[in-house]
Amino acid sequence: MAANTKAPEAIHLEDYKTPAYLVDQVQLTFQLEPSATLVRSKLQMSRNLDRTEPEPLRLDGNSMELISVVLDGKTLSGDNYQLDAEGVTIFAVPEKFCLEIETKIDPAGNTSLEGLYQSSGNFCTQCEAHGFRKITFYPDRPDVMAKFRVRIEAEKKYPVLLSNGNLIAEGELENGHHYAEWEDPFPKPSYLFALVAGDLVCIEDSYKTRSGRDVLLQIFVEERNKDFCDHAMLSLKKSMKWDEDVFDLEYDLDRYMIVAVDDFNMGAMENKGLNVFNSKYVLAHPETATDADYLGVESVIAHEYFHNWTGNRVTCRDWFQLSLKEGLTVYRDQQFSADMNSAAVCRIDDVRILRQHQFPEDAGPMAHPVRPASYVEINNFYTMTVYNKGAEVIRMMRTLLGEEKFVDGVKLYLKRHDGDAATCDDFVRAMEAAGQRDLSQFKLWYSQAGTPQVLIRSHYDEQAKSLRLDMVQHCPPTPEAEQKQPFQIPLAVGLLAADGSDIPLQLEGEDSAGATTRVLELCEKEQSFTFIGLKEQPILSPLRGFSAPVRLKADFSDDELAFRMAHDADSFNRWEAGQTLALKELLRMLSDLEEGRQFVLSPKFICAWRHALEDRQADMSLLTQLLTLPSEQYLSDQLEECNPQAVREVRDRARWQLGSECQAALMERYQECADDGEYSLDPQAVGRRSLRNFCLTLLMELHDQRMTDLCLEQYYKSQNMTDRLAAFAVMVDNPAQDRLAVINDFYQRWQEHPLLIDKWFSVQAMSHQPQVFAEVELLLRHPAFSMSNPNRFRSLVGAFTQNLGAFHRGDGAGYRFLADQVLLLDQKNPQVAARMAGPFTRWKRLEPHRRELMKAELVRMQAAELSKDLYEIVSKSLS
Ligand code: B3K
Ligand code: ZN
């Protein structure tokens, strides 16, 4: 851990300067040894002509031993350069020169999983954002792009030796060693460098591009995983085809390699031609992966593949521009998933994630714009804001320009900047050119943090047969700015007639009515829009498809919401109306609980809900979404001062009530949805499983032995992990006698499968049983628990923090537990530790008692020696 005795300094976008020196060509030689790997780097460099004055050469580097520095063939003595904790400065260099540097590193001892490290004894790298500087000294910034040539030498017990690009040579060496040489013809920044070496097997396929080139596709995994790669391979081929069809983008190398490793800080990494993946996003088999896991694999494979253009061919000038590649690539993977699966369900999922995680981030101490203006540790900025809100910003541009011009804009951006490092402004400029419109106000979405609120009031004029919508926008203050300028907000709206049909829309000043969904552009702080030619008072369907990432406030009556839930032509808004209705109901129950009144769902709500449950025409995936109550996180986010345990109590009560009052209907649907044989991923089958398991969880709320028997039968007999895991989770959530037997059975069955043991830990950590905290403390001492594996740590400690009812115990023990674990992990893996500290950033939104308890833990953490990563989270939370 890089402990900090003095406060680390922030880096600011406004200080950006072009690099003083450029690298034309890199030659790397690795002699791999677990604890003492030698790295020789030969750099052809030149002074950047943008910079007039000659200056010393600064190279980034840390956590390694510098062995030698040779400039144009001459070994430099210590007087010629200065080494410090962050890098080396070479005082004088000519305009063009060759620099050779030798370093020694310790991959086996590298627990941060950045740079070169080992996973299951194999070597692999993670260089984004600042990992390359742990391998060799280098100008480790994305606007320095160079051609790489890599030679890897290792013992033959590491038979597979991989790096980016094309294999140009391989052969034998003395003493049981061998080597491979790779060359990447595309200049790239250091963060896209990758090396993998180990005992891996390879699954191969091929893809013919639209122009007729054959691309070799390879997935490398450990031998035990070789039967689990088919879905990943299929997903890769679908992604390649989709990018050709939608954006005319073809793959550019002859080989595309994916490597799955068990120890990885995040999901995956888009290194040029050699992606490294968390095995969670590669491995899938019906018996071991759920439907959600399958979708996760498909979308992450697509995401990393899409980076080949949006990220690699055109990269970011600096890390403040991170959303340029991430927001755009998330948008692209979301569109891909929507095209491959049910588009409406995908959109609902995207919005659910945004509201559950990004909205709270935007309302807390770590709030930052999509293009942040400063950071202490860039790894803390791989956030929901940069990724998911960034994707919403791209989506809004598509809404404003229309699909065709938007696609033209993306193509123009790629053409203008191919082979270069670009900025978010460059992207918007291409959109302006393709769309023939000025987006200067729109760009505030990149520079202002916070979630805007939009208040809509509608006034129907019986005489004039018109409907006026008065809108007001307001964005609450965030750490970087008290006052905000009005955003340009595209609001897609529709109007429903009394029979539920969509009305063709005509705005004041227009000659005739047109489409039934209209995008209104709210640009002022206050603005009105009037629809005319309305025979009767319509029902407003605002923000269709969630056309902007805003909090909408409008006074809808329960009847209006129920009507839209049944009739809205926009399926997203049908779901949204149901959620709003349920939210009103749950918030009312919450205040009843707080005031000491009886808290129950209203008969009217239950009746509407049962009615929806019995709709046999509805798409089953959509129906499950519609019936699912708003999450505890979303509910908590609505409250100024939240007691998460009260939220849990109310939501659990509502679920119990739905289970008991709709028992017969739930049972019927559960039985109707029984599986009919072979596992299939088609949307009908996925929908059927989702509805069936949803019914099971509500029925199990009744704590009735007959239901438990049903659940046990499903657990023991299921042939697929979706059904088995659903039954397992409800059993663990249940006080039934068989609970322990099932927990043991799951472990015995799957102990050889790390991804399933992760599920085993997280299901227990998420349990609503009162003894869960004690169980989590015990699990921490289970032999299968390990702090060094990020997936395992997340599956126990991370999952527990998402168990709001348990984590937010009134005695603060949950907070103490997390602080202890995070402090321990910070010694090994600062990046994951900082991420795990996320729940602490929400302390100001808690009710006073819990707020004080959480704050005390933050203060305790602040007193410890922290990594830069964790320091930033803790200090910003307290400021
Ligand atoms: N670009 C990587 C994320 C790197 C995170 C570094 N802390 C994966 C992705 O977004 O595709
Ligand atoms: Zn990405």
Q: How large, in whole angstroms, is the Cα Rg? A: 28 Å
The helix fraction, in percent, is 25-40%
Q: Mean pLDDT, as a whole number?
A: 97
Ions, cofactors, ligands: which are bound?
(3S)-3,7-diaminoheptanoic acid, zinc ion
If you consult CATH, what is the topology of the domain at 571-878?
Zincin-like fold
CATH architecture of the domain at 571-878: Alpha Horseshoe
Number of DSSP-assigned strands: 31
CATH superfamily of the domain at 571-878: Peptidase M1, alanyl aminopeptidase, C-terminal domain
Structural class, by secondary structure, is: alpha+beta
Uncertain ranges: none
CA-to-CA gap between the ends? Answer: 24 Å
CATH class call of the domain at 571-878: Mainly Alpha
Shape: globular
* Percentage of residues in strands: 15-25%
Q: Biggest sheet: strands, sense, closure?
A: 8 strands, mixed
Total count of helical runs of at least 4 residues: 27
Strand order of the largest sheet: 6-5-9-3-2-12-15-14
